[in-house]
Write a structure and sequence with these properties.
This protein is an alpha+beta fold and about 260 residues long. Helices cover about 20% and strands about 35% of the residues.
């Protein structure tokens, strides 16, 4: 994912309200969200090239998502795929967030820059291998793109403000969240970060919803989990070549809450 905005433990009816956009090269082969045949408790898309995923949940209350940390000046030679960090955590039902934090501390520097949300609904954690403040996620509205958690990038601040407005409206409507994530308007040059990719690319990457011929927003995901463990997972996949989209809805009751 390249933009995640979420309200965590700050709504009377929902433990988690999350919306995210996955930005990726259009040529990279991807399977849409589904319960994995090899692990029927795991709901996630799949990166066919490397075998991992960018975001997923389990029927027992685990969740994880990853974004890249954008800085071409700090790149690892022949790194492992960051998507395996997500799948490895979710596939191992016995692995606790605390166990995985030790793994991330030990092995995190093997990977190119990343931001990682992981844990359970009651114990959600953030980890980055780029020097930020890793640890438990506090209750509230948070945003994450290609820098540290809650960095004041224009797209992050705008997405958080829109999520807050949706929550204050009272009724949590997934279509409103999807609409908030679908804005293709770039931000002004004076609001753009300098991540080392040059001004033209910063402009291209600046919108909440990226529309570029070779790289852009491939899908949007909504995850809603209420206080009783009822989970809604919605994935909308965009076909840039035809200008169409397809939407999948999954609903399940978590078997056990942590």
């Amino acid at each position: 994912m390249c933009l995640i905005v979420f309200a965590y433990n700050c709504h009377p009816d929902y433990q988690l309200i999350l919306g995210a956009n996955r930005d990726e090269f259009r040529a990279r082969h991807t399977e849409p969200a589904a319960f994995w045949i090899s692990a029927p408790y795991l709901l996630a898309g799949r990166d066919v090239q490397a075998g991992g995923t960018w975001m997923g949940v389990t029927t027992t209350g685990k969740l994880a998502a990853i974004t890249n940390y954008r800085d071409p000046r700090q790149q690892v030679i022949d790194p492992p795929s960051r998507g395996t960090l997500v799948s490895n955590y979710l596939l191992d039902a016995s692995l606790t967030p605390e166990d995985y934090q030790a793994t991330l501390n030990r092995d995190g520097q093997q990977y190119d820059g990343f931001n990682f949300l992981y844990g359970t609904l009651d114990k959600l954690y953030y980890f980055t291998n780029r020097g930020g403040s890793s640890g438990p996620v506090s209750s509230g509205i948070h945003g994450l793109s290609n820098h540290l958690l809650d960095t004041h990038w224009a797209k992050v601040s705008t997405a958080k403000a829109r999520m807050e407005a949706i929550i204050q409206n009272g009724i949590i409507d997934s279509e409103l969240i999807l609409a908030a994530l679908s804005d293709p308007v770039p931000f002004a040059d004076n609001l753009l970060p300098d991540t080392g990719v040059g001004l033209e690319r910063e402009r291209m990457l600046s919108p909440i919803f990226i529309e570029n011929e070779n790289y852009g927003t491939r899908s949007s995901t909504i995850i809603l989990v209420d206080r009783k463990g009822n989970t809604t997972f919605i994935e909308r996949v965009f076909d840039h070549s035809t200008g169409t989209s397809s939407t999948q809805n999954f609903n399940f009751q978590q078997k056990s809450l942590p």
